[in-house]
Amino acid sequence: MVRMAAALSALQESAATTQDHAEDTPDALEWLERAAAGGDDAAVVSIAHQILAEAADETPKPLLLLHEDPTQDVETPPGVLAPQPDQGDDADQDENAERELRYVHRAAERGDGTSRRALGDMSLGLLPTPSGSTMRRPSHQQRPQQHDQVIPGSIATPAAASVMQQPRQQQPRRRSTRTARKTRKPKADGNAALEWYTSAADAGDTSSLLRAADLLYQGTNGVHRDTARAMDLLLAAARQMSRPTLAQVGHLARMGDPDVRLVPDPERAFAYFSESAQTEGDPDSMRVLADLLWAGEGCTKDVKRAWELYERAVDGGCGAARLGLVRCLWLGIGTRRNAARARREMRCLVADMCKLADAGTGAGMSLKDATDADVDAVIETALAAQ
Questions:
Q1: Residue closest to 4 by CA, chosen among 35, 45, 44
Q2: CB 23 within 8 A of CB 50
Q3: H helices within 203-338, ranges in order?
Q4: Contacts of 369 (CB under 8 A, 6+ apart)
Q5: pLDDT 10s per residue in the chain (386 long)?
Q6: How far apart are CA 97 and CA 88, in angstroms?
Q7: HSE toward the beta carbon, residue 294, CA cutoff 13 A
Q8: For residue 76, what is the DSSP state?
Q9: What's the rounded Cα separation, in Å, for the pair 346 and 326?
Q10: How many C-beta atoms surround the C-beta of residue 199 within 10 A?
Q11: Whole-angstrom distance, CA of residue 3 vs CA of residue 356
């Protein structure tokens, strides 16, 4: 058994070397298939990734199209997983495609997040699947554990992530000469896709967090809308991959979403902005956190700490935080009153606004030559508008 394992390992290394330094030849695939047949999990995963990479390369448009009409006829290019006509016996083609799908399932069963994500895409009709094939759901071991903490919130439709991690640089693959044909998309199974995406996320595939969150937030393809769980996944994505950022999650929690009857949650927003300011050092998060502390929104009112955060935000490059500084300095709240500095900060704030206006539609108001009385009037107007 030891000799066999060593031989299989050598076969796999030889196949990997062949893939790295030569075109995608049948010999390389044969080495991997022999290793996979001998029980080598890495070979199974390598073959599945090769199949999925070719399927992705031959799909001409973004795959994360959750809201397309699943009954629409589309032109499907010759993909690895889709059987093609007029190239030999149809049964042989279906058998080959079904065999390739089994490799993807085997890789998923072995904990490969990329394969699990791809099976989620197939469940939504975003990747081609063999006609008549049965898409399995994750086994009990592959299914995600339920989170103990459910965090209410909302998620805007996340930016479409890449369907799979890009494979390492290889020589150009041989392209199939099979001709394309029109196929009808299978009916999307959102619940199966959701199980695969959450299972893939548990296996470490962070981009699947966004796919699962999108399904739960939109409530499409038969999935019951669950914005609380969607927010939970979105927060996990922010913590693991900073896409979206914690600040963006905080803004969603603070503003809410009337389209899905999501009530603003200032307590959650305060927690997210606090975490963003502490872990990411985001100046805009410091500004919003200071606003919340100033107003006692979602937290205990603390004007002194608000002043400190306004200063840190301005020092970090957040020009919008200057208005908070002006308010504290002009009113003497959170710090000693300092009208002279308040005027300087207001001049800087207006100068920053002028730069933005000059870069946009035209010149804005300038306080460069304004008197102190003029600046005082601007400050009073700005504070009254808040």
A1: 35
A2: no
A3: 207-218, 227-241, 246-255, 266-279, 283-295, 303-315, 322-331
A4: none
A5: 444 344 434 444 444 444 444 345 566 778 888 888 888 888 889 888 888 887 766 543 333 333 333 334 434 333 334 444 444 555 555 677 788 888 899 999 999 999 999 999 999 988 877 655 566 778 655 555 444 333 333 333 333 232 223 333 443 443 343 334 334 456 789 999 999 999 999 999 999 999 999 999 989 899 999 999 999 999 999 999 888 999 999 999 999 999 887 889 999 999 999 999 999 899 999 999 999 999 999 999 999 999 999 999 999 999 999 999 999 999 999 999 999 999 999 999 988 887 765 554 444 567 777 888 999 999 999 999 87
A6: 14
A7: 23
A8: E
A9: 6
A10: 26
A11: 70
Q: How many residues does the chain have?
A: 386
How far apart (Å, rounded) are the C-alpha atoms in residues 128 and 52?
10
Residue with tokens 């693959």, as numbered in its chain: 173
Q: What is the DSSP letter of 181?
A: E
